[in-house]
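User: what does the whole thing look like in 3D?
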Amino acid sequence: MTDTVTKAHPHQLALSVGLRDDATLSNFYPGDNALAVVAVRAAAEGGDEHFVFVWGPSGSGGTHLLQAACHAAAAVGRQSLYLPLDQVVAYGPQVLEGLESLELVCLDHLHAVAGDADWEEGLFHLFNRLRDAGCALLVAADAPPRRLRIRLPDLASRLSWGLVFQLHGLDDAGKVQALQLRAHARGIQLSEEAALYILHRSPRQMSALFALLERLDSASLSAKRRVTIPFIKETLGW
Amino acid sequence: MAIELWQTCLGYLQEEFPSQQFNTWIRPLKAESGGDRQLRLLAPNRFVMDWVSDKYLQRIRELLAEVGGDRVTEVVLEVRTGAASSARRPARTPQRARPASTSPARTSAPRAPSRVERVQPSADQLRQASEPVQPDMLMKESGASAKKKERQADVEGGIRHQTHLNNLFTFETFVQGKSNQLALAAAQQVAENPGSSYNPLFIYGGVGLGKTHLMHAVGAAMLERNPNAKIVYLHSERFVADMVKALQLNAINDFKRYYRTVDALLIDDIQFFAGKDRSQEEFFHTFNALLEGGQQMILTCDRYPKEISGLEDRLKSRFGWGLTVAVEPPELETRVAILMKKAEEARVRLPHDAAFFIAQKIRSNVRELEGALKRVIANAHFTGSRITTEFIRESLKDLLALQDKLVSIDNIQRVVAEYYKIKVADLHSKRRSRSVARPRQVAMALSKELTNHSLPEIGNAFGGRDHTTVLHACRKVAELRETDTDIREDYKNLLRLLSS
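Assistant: Here's the predicted 3D structure for the full assembly of 738 residues, as structure tokens:
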């Protein structure tokens, strides 16, 4: 299929407002996962080890790392793709076709397709093609390769072949640091007390904490105020 | 110019769309300047192309017009058909070996994503349709990412064969052991006398035990003897994909000619032919033609030919015409040797006792062994530490914790009871009938081999038996494994169940 545009319609370019808060390796607070971050960066940038598998429960940072890897790859001119398997499972494994033409493939939520014979075979063939093509692969799942209930032994053994890292969630001190790091990246000065204040009142998953930060960020922008404890109270109605 | 505009446009798209959407749909698009004010955007597959076309193309067009005026007036979105650029290949990639995965058949496969109703051939497909097809060859590279030149052999009629051999897999890098010596000897024979000694050579065994390595090693050795030999390695999936494409494009004769003019055809994992009748038929004819022509065939499979369900009987019987050899899981000494070799290749000093420790803990297959070693090496580089047994214990603690759970005495008893279809309580009981006593002895021997528990502890876990009973059981099982094929087979199966 070919789509062709024959006429161009110039009109007002939409101005980009909100500050981007993409997942990058530099705004990932590593905690106990420093080595995993190093390995992900190396694979994304074209290092020797082509396959890294990270696992941990939801909220432990797998999605962040994979998306950040796409950023890191782009920064060195490598073409990549991030594929959340849980969201494309209904389309079947043809989604995986041709991905070896890229330089980095990031497959998130691998557990979502574990046990499905078609998907497992598709992943197995993809793995072989990526390996043959020298393409890097990053996988995130909620369990280590052996615990994923993969039925195809050919795939299961391949998943154990790379560098496998368990992602350790952050403790409270780590969460405060992560919040401050993320705030800093947005240009917000967030004191430790303010971060603790948020942590003690909000749902404790990192995604929820970051979502609050985003709300606070835009509120502080429009109110032209700093993010202090009174401001947080007022904005979030706590 | 078009590419620069696309770069600018990318910046805006990145701002406008959530990063997940951007990473999934926009990032994989490769931009190429398509001539007169045209921009070509190449998606890795039809699924991505259709999605982009549906959700983002309109915005892309608007943005291009806004930032570029009439410098780009046409945007073409299509599926990319080329291999990756050579630039991203690992430095150690050999000049002749690593296959560049062109996957035309996959990108142009007729299966469209279910959500998309419009299925029309892409520009590339149409172009290809008017050209003669040589499987896995002649694929048009999309623009700048010129396909890496690989070893190719010209044959009559201008077909060029690609070997797809990986030169890391040679006889020199293969670690020999009791578990694979027969397969290795057969492979060496075939390399010396291709087409005449064993044809086909059929190598079977579990995953990650070196079947593919051996197959590549034969190919490499044949090429060394005769650099002009036309040797083609491929995975069964590629054979199927090539055939599908040839059928689509009405080029099945080219397909046949390609595969029948090789000196050696190496096909990996033929169990994936199961249930694919048309591919089996085509493969059957190729197989016969090659055998008649005295060209070598090497096949690998995860099981004995007769056990592959969904495969035609005539194929199964033909697979047995040459030599069928098994590769078994490596025993402890071989696992140690493999680790030492891998460490040497990675230029890392691995003390023997440390290698021994890993080999003792990880027994399922070589891939897992390699994965564990990689993890240890990564830790050592990161922390600047020397590799010792203690360091390994710390580096692999996640993995070993899983392993320990798997090989607790409780679990061994459960698995053994299930295997012999008896109750766990029978293993603890005083009953001495053969149907219970033998499994109990096997379970004790496995506990001794797989766990670090002492003999008294093991005896205790089996209904408070004396440690001399455990010792006797271990000796008896060792003896039976030499003399009784059933026990040997049972023990091997149980080991596999408990360590993978």
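In plain terms: Chain A touches chain B through 74 residues (CB under 8 Å). Residues 172-236 of chain A form a domain with the Helicase, Ruva Protein; domain 3 fold (CATH 1.10.8.60).
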